[in-house]
Amino acid sequence: MVDYKEKIDLNRLPRHIAIIMDGNGRWAKKQNQPRVFGHRNGVKSVREVSEAAAEIGIEYLTLYAFSTENWNRPRPEVNALMSLLVETIRKEVSTLMENNIRLKAIGDLGKLPDRTLEALREGIEITQNNDRMTLVLALNYSARWELMEAAKKIHWDATKGLDTEKLTEEIFQNYLATNGMPDPELLIRTSGELRISNFLLWQIAYSELYFTDKFWPDFRKNDLYEAIVSYQNRERRFGKISEQLA
Ligand code: IPE
Ligand code: IPE
Ligand code: MG
Q: Is 70 known to be catalytic?
């Protein structure tokens, strides 16, 4: 097995990595298990990848855990996911403290079940002073929801005197749920699906995209490191030509 960690250039790390954790259900089905079995096993990957990212010095890791569209799944699966979230956050807070990781959440959090929201708020509060890495859970998140919210807040501020003629991209970003965070340089999606599924549409304008066929419960530290090596081998031109970059 190739050890990708030693191939990483620590001076050129992405500051922010975002991951669409996908394939839990298919991973379970492959072994004739219920979909929830896949979600349960996905938690181990979350732990591994969070540790892996913190270990090498990533500042922000954003994990897409539940989209606004995921409410359309069968009720028992939604309930199981919400319970698993409560259980996982409660259980993992001590690991987050040990690893000096701060927990944060983005999404329409007010619509989460009370128990889930309570566990989340607790986790966020307990870890608020940790400063090695910020782990951002995207929960009941969708990019279109986020952009609509930004539009509404800007409209409100305009009635209070905000001069919308002077609105810049920098100011606009302050209205997003990711306010204060750098845009992800690297976006990873597992399970072989080649789509964005309403994730961070504004923020990934110039992200490098990395797709792997591995299902999320099989994703391990070395897989994250492999994605980072792939990212580091790319030329990010931002509209320029190659010769202008040297
Ligand atoms: C990702 O795995 C987890 C969530 C979306 C909550 P899926 O549950 O989407 O698994 P597949 O894509 O059906 O295999
Ligand atoms: C995207 O995965 C949402 C999360 C990973 C939480 P889905 O499995 O819900 O995406 P689609 O529906 O296949 O696009
Ligand atoms: Mg899926």
A: yes
d(CA 63, CA 159): 35
Contact indicator for 21, 68 with CB cutoff of 8 Å? no
Q: Which atom of ligand 2 is nearest to the CA of 25?
A: 8
Tens of pLDDT, residues 135-174: 999 999 999 999 999 999 999 999 999 999 999 999 999 9
pLDDT digits (tens, 9 = 90+) for 122-142: 999 999 999 999 999 999 999
Domains of the chain: 15-143+185-233 (3.40.1180.10)
Query: Which residue has the least CA distance to atom 12 on ligand 1?
Result: 23
pTM for the model: 0.98
- Ligand 1 site: residues with CB under 6 angstroms? 21-26, 66, 70, 81, 191, 216
207 DSSP assignment: P
